[in-house]
Amino acid sequence: MPELPEVETLCRQLRQVILGRRLLSVEVLDERLGPPPAVAGLAVRQVVRRGKAVALLFHGGVAWKIHLRMTGRLLWETDYGLPVDHLRLICHFDGGRLLLIDPRRFATVDFDDEAGPSGPPDPFAAEDPAGLRREAARRRLPVKAFLLDQRLFPGIGNIYAGEILFAAAVDPRRPARDVTQEEWERIARAARAILREAVRARGTTVSDWRDLFGRPGEYQHRLKVYDRRGGPCPRCGGEIVREKVCGRGSYHCPRCQR
DNA sequence: TCCCATGTTGCTAA
DNA sequence: GTTAGCAACATGGG
């Protein structure tokens, strides 16, 4: 479910509530997550995003990495008592509880993360279009699949990849190596703008995304193509089509995305 | 009943 | 080596 803007939203909100707070105890309710870790008593030193994952860095050198996959949610709860469905993990901090909720149980928590103090650079932040084109030069897979490569663009997911390609007017099925320099420039520009705006809007709620405090995001109101099959293209009025690209539901306007 | 799902991994085969 | 396709993970919604 969550892509870069949603995970970034969680990280920012987590910093508001758990930075410097002490972790008192941990309850693992789903054995798939592994045995409960022995970090009780440690205070949170830093919260960083690693692509689509949240890393909690504790004093003492311990780090956790939380990946929400499709349906994982993090919820900060100060008002205890309401029963919560699909609760998988409870972290008791001084001041509140951090809950991991996940109906499909795909989310993972690495209680022994080894990665460093900072996350990978934001996709497109430093990437120059010439570098993108070089990277794509030998790849004939669809440009959308290329954008979903987490090693190259950590945090980009299906919704935002589709929106970025729409904004750049590039057909998601185009082989990556055929994308021109000028198109890479448009893609990089669109990616920066869309991701920034989506973070500002606290993410996209099309089904069940909620932020750390249970509120839906706002970016769904600004999606141009995702989940809009049959609708008019906001740019040219053409009909938006849905088509599988690299095994994922994909939306584009065949009239103005070339 | 069937199809779909904002993610990732691992396998098989071309 | 690259890529496509599929299944798996497990559940809920339309």
What are the SSEs and their pairings?
Blueprint: H1 4-18, E1 23-28, E2 44-50, E3 53-58, E4 63-67, E5 73-77, E6 87-93, E7 96-101, E8 108-110, H2 129-136, H3 143-147, H4 158-167, H5 181-200, E9 241-245, E10 248-252
Antiparallel strand pairs: 1-6, 2-3, 3-4, 4-8, 5-7, 6-7, 9-10
Helix pairs in contact: 1-5, 2-5, 4-5
This protein binds a DNA duplex (14 and 14 nucleotides) through α4.
What does the model show?
This protein is of the alpha+beta class and 258 residues long. It folds into two domains: 4-110, MutM-like, N-terminal (N-terminal domain of MutM-like DNA repair proteins, Alpha-Beta Barrel); 129-252, Helicase, Ruva Protein, domain 3, CATH 1.10.8. 22% of the residues lie in helices and 21% in strands. The chain has five helices and ten strands. It has a four-stranded antiparallel beta sheet, covered by helices on one side. Strands 2-3-4-8 form a four-stranded antiparallel beta sheet, with helices on one face. A two-stranded antiparallel sheet has the order 9-10. The chain is elongated, with a radius of gyration of 20 Å. The chain binds a DNA duplex (14 and 14 nucleotides) through residues 1-3, 6, 32, 52, 67-72, 86, 102-106, 108, 138-141, 145, 148, 150, 157-160, 203-204, 206-209, 226, 246-249.
